[in-house]
Write a sequence for this structure.
């Protein structure tokens, strides 16, 4: 970021770490960013809704999940200082097959995809950051698929703890087990060091 932009939201700071932003670009971002505190179990997006916003979890824990064969399957988490959104629906403008739910009371920043796209069209630094953010999201998805294909349950658990520090103490184990594609019994054994 540039000089004189010290008092900005954490979401703008996170975006600026992806690509340097001018003071004008920072100001443009700050105009579209909003903040709210919501209680746990709040749905930011329900299955069948179209996603219009991206979220930045300032403090809290959020998950993306879907239903398969009457099971609730956790697909992705975001924890303190991470982005989350219904990315496929944001890009396609089609109803989402996934939902976004707060696991903890959370302090969130959010912005509309339309406003962000307008900033990208106008400002090169924001567009560059958006491209890097999209690339990061793509790589995260690829890593998630590869972890299920190639890593043991223990390796997936260790990666989860690295990526989301302390999540096991903040999240119901059933959500973690479904994210890891294992049973709660297997997860308990891994946590106890017996598997």
């Amino acid at each position: 970021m540039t000089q004189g932009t010290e008092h900005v939201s954490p979401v703008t700071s996170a975006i600026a770490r992806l690509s340097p932003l001018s003071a004008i670009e920072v100001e443009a971002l700050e105009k579209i960013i909003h903040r709210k505190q919501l209680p746990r179990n709040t749905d930011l997006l329900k299955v069948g809704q179209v996603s219009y916003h991206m979220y930045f979890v300032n403090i809290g824990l959020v998950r993306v999940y879907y239903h398969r064969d009457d099971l609730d399957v956790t697909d992705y988490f975001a924890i303190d200082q991470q982005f989350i959104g219904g990315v496929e629906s944001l890009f396609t403008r089609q109803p989402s097959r996934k939902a976004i739910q707060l696991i903890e009371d959370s302090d969130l920043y959010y912005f509309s995809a339309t406003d962000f796209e307008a900033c990208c069209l106008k400002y090169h630094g924001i567009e560059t950051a958006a491209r890097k953010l999209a690339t990061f999201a793509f790589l995260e998805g690829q890593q998630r698929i590869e972890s299920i294909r190639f890593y043991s349950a223990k390796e997936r658990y260790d990666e989860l703890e690295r990526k989301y520090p302390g999540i096991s103490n903040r999240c119901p184990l059933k959500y973690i087990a479904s994210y890891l594609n294992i049973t709660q019994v297997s997860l308990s054994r891994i946590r106890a060091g017996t598997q």
Observations:
- The chain has eight helices and eight strands.
- The radius of gyration is 18 Å.
- The longest strand covers residues 71-79.
- Confidence is low (pLDDT under 50) at residues 1-5.
